[in-house]
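**User:** My hope is that you can spare some time for a protein that puzzles me. As I understand it, each token names a local backbone shape. I would be glad if you read both lines and explained how they fit together. The protein I mean follows directly.
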Amino acid sequence: MTTDAPISLADAPRMLPTLTDANREFWTGGAQGELRIPRCHACGTWVYPPGARCAECDGELHSEAVSGKATVFTFTVNRHPYNPEIPLPYVIALVELVEQVGLRLMTNVVNCDPEEVVIGMPVRVRFEDRGEIFVPVFEPDADAAKG
């Protein structure tokens, strides 16, 4: 049975990434409440997904905390039970971080009715604690919506 009421994916099974030197800070920064994204030492460009060098200037990258604020760039509501252990419906979204135009990441929008999600909606990061890995998900940012 499905419902359009707000659901939580916090206890749903997830495929978790293998931690590497390139992605470790991204996946573990949530332990300190930080969304950490690689940034170029030379030109200041934020780079996601994490890579070895800056795509703009080939500069060295280091991870920095971002504000965690974003807007929904695009999304879909999944209503198909691909995995019966994951409660339906849920939102898969591409969000754009406020730090840089084009700095986007794939995530879930949580803590709201899927029918309330719209393109341009302000959201903020929160983290699902999965042990060593902290999965960044986003929820509506009521403070940003107020103006």
Observations:
- The longest helix spans residues 24-28.
- Strands lie at 35-40, 61-66, 69-78, 90-97, 104-109, 122-130, 133-140.
